[in-house]
Write a structure and sequence with these properties.
By secondary structure, this protein is mainly α. Helix content is about 90%, strand content about 0%. It has two domains: about 5-160, Helix Hairpins (Orthogonal Bundle), CATH 1.10.287; about 180-260.
């Protein structure tokens, strides 16, 4: 195989590939219908010309046949008058017109057959064009649906890696982080508040225990001989419950020391 043959085949292959890729089904179908309609117009024109030629041949045939009949009548008239020479001349004219009419008759028969065939082809082409238009509309609708579905599938396949989707994922992660920070801060603040309340509750327990001890000591002091003054036991008031737990504990220890010394 020669180099030019191989090169020509490669060029044709590339051109065919480019043409195939450039073909749009909707446009190609539309153009195909337009081409068929142009063919229909040309066929109609051909049928019209053939019919016109048929009519013209028919007129010529009728004229020549009429002339042949007319000269035949004249030959009969001349022969009836006894003029054989004139009758012979009339028959010669009649023969000429009759031969021309015979040729025109054959031509007319051929033209009639051709016109009939063209008419059948015209009807078949019109039917095909009508069918092609219906099919074209259906195929164009299917092509549009296929194109729309392809675009939708392409969008769905690319949406996971698109910048917009990545932005949504980043913002979602940031919101989760902010919620976690807020929850942690809330828990820390709640723990501090609970600790303060526990301290207050602990202080109240110490005050209650101190009051109980004072009552016990006073009861023991009444049971023992010798006066026990109320000065040895400091009075607990509602204002003392607001002091810190360390001061209450120190005061309790001091009272216990005094009570022991008085025993």
């Amino acid at each position: 195989m020669g180099l030019f043959d191989r090169l020509g085949r490669v060029v044709r292959a590339n051109l065919n590939d480019l043409v195939s890729k450039a073909e749009d089904p909707e446009k190609v179908l539309e153009q195909a219908v337009i081409d068929m309609q142009e063919d229909l117009v040309q066929l109609r024109q051909a049928v019209a010309r053939s019919i016109a030629e048929q009519k013209r041949s028919e007129q010529q045939y009728n004229q020549n046949q009429s002339e042949a009949n007319k000269w035949e009548q004249r030959a009969k008239l001349a022969l009836s008058k006894g003029d054989e020479t004139l009758a012979r001349e009339a028959l010669t004219r009649k023969k000429s017109f009759a031969e021309t009419a015979a040729v025109l008759k054959q031509q007319l028969e051929q033209q009639t057959s051709t016109v009939d065939q063209l008419k059948r082809n015209l009807v078949a082409l019109e039917s095909k064009i009508s069918e092609a238009k219906t099919k074209k509309n259906m195929l164009q609708a299917r092509a549009k649906a296929a194109k729309a579905n392809e675009q939708l599938q392409s969008t769905l396949s690319n949406i996971g890696t698109s910048s917009a989707m990545s932005a949504f994922e980043r913002m979602e992660q940031k919101v989760l982080e902010q919620e976690a920070k807020s929850q942690a801060v809330g828990e820390l603040a709640g723990n501090g508040l609970e600790e303060q309340f526990r301290m207050l509750e602990g202080g109240s327990d110490v005050d209650d225990e101190l009051a109980l001890l004072k009552a016990q000591v006073q009861g023991e002091a009444k049971a023992l001989p010798g006066p026990v003054t109320d000065k040895a036991l400091p009075q607990s008031t509602s204002s003392q419950s607001s002091t810190s737990s360390n001061s209450v504990v120190d005061a309790e220890l001091e009272d216990l020391r005094r009570q022991i010394d008085n025993l």
